[in-house]
Design brief:
This protein is mainly alpha-helical. About 70% of the residues lie in helices and about 5% in strands. The chain has 10 helices and 3 strands, in the order H-E-H-H-E-E-H-H-H-H-H-H-H.
Length: about 240
């Protein structure tokens, strides 16, 4: 599929960076494949300069590896790195879920949720509906993007700018891991979101925290059981 980025775009580098990242996440550009500025410029219908800038940014994000005189290749996520990312997520997202539930309790106790909080909650409801529909329609390929939107939405409900910023920093890698394991855990993982959301809406901070931690931990164990070469030897517990 060829994408077109018009020359009048105000941020061509960001646009092509997002396109390349998305193609890496969904395996259009598989790990280990060599990529060149010329080929990518042709693929995305843009000049080489913004492509070069996008590749530099993606290298910082960990999606691309570049070596002098050797060009660029698509990175892979080592299993140990994936394990560490999941560990970070367990702690980080358990905190966002707890804070989100506490805020929900405060909002409903006030009798009238403020517009900003309510807008985010409505957006989350729409995300959950779209995910349910994607599963019903057999479009699990839509779940990775909806998944990260859900988790970032919970972070927004936490009203912690620090926690939200930290989650945004690793959101691309989260989507990448989710997409790579979508066939194994996509559907079951998605249904767990409803339980977490219910605990948050109920203002039950402990239940929301436990639910989110268990949700991420299950994804972690499932991923490692499928991708870790020595998981069967008991390295992962």
């Amino acid at each position: 599929m060829q994408h077109s980025l018009v020359s009048g775009d105000s941020a061509p580098r960001q646009r092509v960076q997002d396109e390349i990242r998305r193609d890496i996440i969904f395996g259009v550009l598989p790990a280990g494949s060599r990529i060149t500025e010329t080929a990518l410029a042709l693929k995305y219908g843009i000049s080489r300069v913004p492509v070069r800038e996008a590749l530099r940014a993606l290298e910082v994000e960990g999606f691309v590896e570049s070596k002098p005189f050797a060009g660029s290749t698509v990175s892979a996520i080592p299993v140990d790195d994936a394990d560490d990312l999941f560990a970070i997520r367990e702690a980080l997202e358990a905190a966002t879920a707890r804070r989100a539930a506490q805020n929900a309790a405060a909002q409903f106790a006030a009798g009238r949720p403020d517009p900003g909080w309510w807008k985010t909650r409505q957006e989350l409801a729409a995300v959950l509906e779209k995910g349910d529909k994607a599963i019903a329609d057999g479009r699990i390929d839509l779940l990775p993007e909806l998944n990260i939107r859900f988790h970032l939405g919970i972070a927004e409900l936490s009203r912690s700018s620090s926690l939200t910023a930290l989650l945004r920093q690793i959101s691309g890698k989260i989507e990448w891991l989710y997409a790579s394991d979508i066939g194994s855990r996509g559907k079951s993982s998605w249904t767990e979101h409803r339980t977490i959301m219910a605990a948050i809406d109920a203002g039950n901070a402990q239940q929301a925290e436990r639910g989110m931690r268990a949700h991420v931990h299950s994804s972690r164990l499932g991923y490692l059981s499928r991708f870790s070469p020595d998981a069967s030897a008991g390295r992962v517990v």
